[in-house]
Write a structure and sequence with these properties.
Number of strands: 15
Order of helices and strands: EEEEHEEEHEHHEEEHEHHEEHHHEH
Strand order of the largest sheet: 1-2-5-3-4
Helix content: 25-40%
Structural class: alpha+beta
Distance between the termini: 28 Å
Radius of gyration: 25 Å
Shape: globular
Largest sheet: 5 strands, mixed
């Protein structure tokens, strides 16, 4: 838990908030106190949900102990027989203060998830060794069943050895953009040693130990934050016309969604033109998302616009659209990357100071400190 303190006008906010990795499946670990009284309030609950948006999965709830102090004339405590609910004179102000206080505190933290490897005790007592053997046996059974039902090939695979030269990123367009530069510009004269595991994870040495990066989740986070920055700034994304327009079919509701969101598509650098009855063609597409399939991505975007409830705030709809675009354009799990591409992805993470969570709230990076590794190998 992390302490929180904030004073704004006559309202004091304090308490303890949980790190994202300790989020729960329900809201039973969220306690809100106003002037010492435990309450439930939909405005504060919504503010907490928004404060953790992008840091935890949408279906999970943060652990929070929140205390608000304010003058008694700012609220009415007699709206519920058990006094569990209150009515604020200015609920929107309370909502904004709680949201900004919690979000700012979270953004001040290093949110990288620390990973710990479970290693058995060497000098275990007999009953401890039996418990460990049983745990290992159960784990092997679970793994064998999982492999069987998923059709996974469990035969041993020869691992490819990778050398670790100090690379220079080639001057070409990769999956992470056009701004390819020398790795030394980001990391000094000695670029970090990296390797790819199962074509999905990047392992990199750091001064403190090592990190394991989910390549899809990290690239998705970087793209999403870039898109969001452009949209918030009112800037139009750079786009390029397609040599061959990509067409897709649409129904009346999808066509109406296009007409109602022409401004959004213009900001995103997406140019659409009718291509016959019930058919639309993508004529131009943002360069930042050049790895995404325009027609497939457009259908997903339109599904979001059509299915969003009428009461949904425009900002939330836009964020959902940007999440979809980032996910479609990000490098995929199982995609082999060159050494230069891995270096560039890590460089962008360092440059942009990412929050180590993808838009869906999943961690992008696990870190092992050198002290933790030495303890696991009994070197301390």
């Amino acid at each position: 838990l992390v302490s929180l303190q904030r004073q704004e006008k006559d309202i004091q906010i304090s308490g303890l908030i949980g790190r994202p990795e300790f989020a729960r499946a329900g809201s039973s670990h969220q306690y809100i106190f106003v002037n010492g009284r435990c309450i439930r309030d939909k405005f504060i609950s919504h503010a907490l949900k928004e404060a953790y948006r992008g840091l935890i999965e949408p279906s999970r709830f943060a652990v929070v102990f929140l205390f608000l102090q304010m003058p008694q004339d700012c609220l009415d405590v007699n709206v519920h027989p058990t006094k569990i609910e209150v009515r604020f004179d200015n609920p929107n102000f309370i909502h904004s203060q709680v949201l900004s206080a919690v979000r700012e505190r979270l953004m001040s933290l290093d949110l990288a998830v620390s990973a710990r490897a479970a290693v058995p005790q060497v000098n275990a007592l007999p009953h401890q060794k039996q418990d460990f053997d049983n745990d290992v046996r159960r784990q092997r059974i679970r793994q064998a069943m999982n492999d069987f039902f998923s059709g996974r090939n469990t035969a041993p695979v020869m691992q490819r050895q990778i050398d670790f030269p100090a690379p220079v990123i080639a001057g070409r367009t990769g999956p992470f953009g056009r701004e390819n530069v020398a790795a030394s510009q980001w990391f000094g004269e000695t670029a970090p040693k990296v390797m790819q595991v199962h074509d999905s994870y990047i392992v990199a040495q750091t001064p403190e130990g090592l990190i394991i990066v989910d390549q899809h989740a990290l690239h998705e986070e970087i793209l999403y934050n870039r898109l969001l920055e452009h949209v918030k700034a009112g800037e139009k994304l750079e786009s390029q016309r397609l040599l061959v327009p990509e067409s897709f079919e649409l129904n009346d509701r999808m066509e109406q969604a296009i007409l109602e969101n022409t401004g959004l598509f213009e900001k995103l650098g997406i140019e659409l033109e009718p291509f016959g009855p019930g058919v639309m063609a993508v004529q131009a597409w943002p360069t930042l998302l050049e790895k995404a399939l325009p027609a497939e991505c457009m259908k997903d975007i339109l599904d979001i616009l059509v299915d969003s409830p009428a009461k949904t705030a425009a900002e939330e709809v836009v964020k959902s659209v940007l999440e979809t675009m980032a996910c479609k354009a990000a490098v995929k799990a199982g995609q082999k990357l060159s050494l230069a591409e891995m270096q560039q992805l890590l460089a962008q993470r360092r440059e942009r100071k990412t929050i180590n969570r993808c838009p869906h709230g999943r961690p992008t990076v696990l870190k092992f400190t050198l002290d933790e590794l030495q303890k696991q190998f009994k070197r301390t």
